UniProtKB/TrEMBL annotation:
The lineage of its organism: Eukaryota, Fungi, Dikarya, Basidiomycota, Agaricomycotina. This is Major facilitator superfamily (MFS) profile domain-containing protein. The chain crosses the membrane at residues 109-126, 171-191, 203-223, 235-254, 304-328, 340-359, 365-385, 392-414, 426-443. It is a multi-pass membrane protein. The keyword Transport applies. One of its GO terms (molecular function) is transmembrane transporter activity. One of its GO terms (cellular component) is membrane.
Length: 496
């Protein structure tokens, strides 16, 4: 509900000043701009270096391109590796099944499926707590700690002897990995503007598809170690991949950067530029932690609406990550060949996801491109279900992987763009991923069905806010009055 009255409104100040650097304070700490600073309604937001006296303008495309390149090189490679190893340590369960884990552990009936499902139950349950802990203690400490924990658990999987041990280890793995994916998406949103998010999320999410490609080849190679040290080949998959994660996790304690206000790889001028860019792009929402904002995230119906949309796509994503080698093997291919043949569909999916995200940022739209991605997935699943010929079934896996994986970066960007306030954003992203994961095996809803009304509703909300701003003569100069309202602020605009 939008507020209709605004007690204590100030008169609109003049708009012919620029923002001095000394007036900028930490955006991520929740401090607002200096009260005397203003933003030109049709001008550029600027700041001046206290050392050189030069002005940096938020609209200076050359300066922003240099800054973005620097951020990309320092932030994206490590978080992409972290997400790659996370998905690799999760999806190797399917590779181990094809490699003989079921027979070795004497799994009968739905034993494998139960162990696979319980991972996601606990993974989902700890999504929101993980994101809140990350915000409290810092991403540069929390993410590396997570990596070391789940790497140890993954390594210990090689020692399981029966179904009970397998279930226990999968539960601990779910708890250890919880929150990494939504946490990384939230972390990226603290550095980049709204229309720069999808491309960056797609780059680190591309590691998901890379893990499918790389995981198949790696598992095929590791299986050649069958019998070494009296361990079956599938046990070596968990042992080697888990130890690799631990090594990278230890390195991440030194290689992971914190937030813009304390990161050491940027100088003070660049730090100020980031703060100016984000302050304007966030429409001056509060960024500090408060439990009131946590309640906002849980109480807002849009959080659950995004979760339902994400759910429709999570079902095929998680299914493919676990069962693609089995699907290909059931088409009539040998087990070893199935490991290798699972690689090409993931490579194409990575390319399609990057293109889809680039188009989304370029044209500043989310919903329509999600619908297009889902059409690819629908075509693939239709062919896969309807054909009995191996070559057509294998061709269909290219469509299913491309459509499902291309949806996720754009959908996460959509949810992030349409959430005001950092704490609420952290809760919403974790909640949508967590709830969708929780019911991924029980409630297969269609993403496409939900996306169309969501786009229409966002359009109506923007028009309603624009009308209210005209009637009440509201502008960005009134931002302080509404900074605690999150995306309910009349100055906040939703991304279509």
């Amino acid at each position: 509900m939008l507020p209709l009255t605004f007690p204590g409104r100030r008169e609109r100040p003049s708009t012919n000043t620029i923002l001095p650097r000394m007036a900028i304070t930490s955006v991520t700490s929740g401090t607002s701009f200096h009260p005397d600073s203003q933003i030109q309604e049709k001008g550029l937001l600027s700041t001046r270096s206290s050392d050189t006296g030069e002005y940096y303008e938020a609209g200076d495309s050359a300066s922003e391109r240099r800054l973005l390149r620097k951020l990309d090189w320092h932030l994206l490679p490590l978080i992409s590796v972290m997400h790659l190893l996370s998905f690799l340590d999760r999806s190797n369960f399917g590779n181990a099944k094809v490699a003989g884990m079921e027979a070795s552990l004497h799994l009968r009936g739905n034993g494998f499926n139960i162990a696979a499902a319980l991972f996601y139950v606990f993974y989902a349950a700890f999504e929101v707590p993980s994101n809140l802990l990350m915000k409290k203690i810092g991403p540069h400490r929390w993410f590396p700690f997570q990596m070391v924990c789940w790497g140890i658990v993954c390594t210990l999987t090689c020692l399981t002897k029966n179904l009970g041990g397998l279930i226990a280890i999968r539960i601990f793995l779910g708890i250890a990995e919880a929150g990494l994916f939504p946490g990384l998406a939230y972390y990226i949103s603290l550095w980049y503007k709204k229309d720069e998010l999808a491309r960056r999320i797609s780059i680190f999410y591309a590691s998901t598809t890379s893990s499918g490609a790389f995981g198949g080849i790696l598992s095929w190679w590791i299986l050649k170690m069958n019998g070494v040290g009296h361990l079956a080949g599938w046990r070596w998959i968990f042992a080697l991949e888990g130890m690799l994660t631990v090594v990278v996790g230890v390195f991440a304690f030194w290689g992971m950067h914190g937030l813009p206000e304390d990161a050491k790889f940027i100088n003070e001028e660049e730090r100020t530029m980031i703060q100016v860019r984000l302050a304007k792009d966030r429409e001056h929402m509060n960024t500090h932690y408060s439990f009131a904002f946590v309640r906002q995230g849980f109480a807002d119906w849009k959080s659950y609406f995004f979760a339902i949309i994400y759910l429709g796509n999570a079902i095929p994503v998680y299914s493919l990550s676990l069962f693609l080698p089995s699907i290909i093997a059931n088409l009539g291919y040998k087990a070893a060949d199935a490991q290798l043949l699972s690689t090409p569909p993931y490579i194409l999916a990575m390319i399609v996801a990057l293109i889809n995200a680039w188009l989304s940022d370029k044209y500043k739209v989310r919903g329509p491109l999600i619908l297009c991605s889902q059409l690819l997935a629908i075509i693939g699943f239709t062919v896969l279900l309807g054909t009995k010929k191996a070559k057509y079934g294998y061709m269909a896996t290219f469509f299913t992987c491309s459509g499902t994986y291309a949806t996720v970066p754009v959908l996460l960007s959509w949810a992030s763009n349409n959430t005001g306030g950092d704490t609420k954003k952290a809760v919403r992203i974790a909640l949508m991923v967590g709830l969708a994961t929780w019911v991924v095996y029980a409630l297969p809803l269609s993403t496409g069905i939900m996306t169309n009304p969501a786009t229409t509703w966002d359009t109506r909300l923007n028009k309603r806010k624009e009308k209210l701003c005209r009637e009440k003569r509201l502008s960005v100069s009134d931002r302080v009055e509404f900074q605690d309202l999150g995306d309910d602020s009349p100055l906040f605009r939703f991304t279509l």
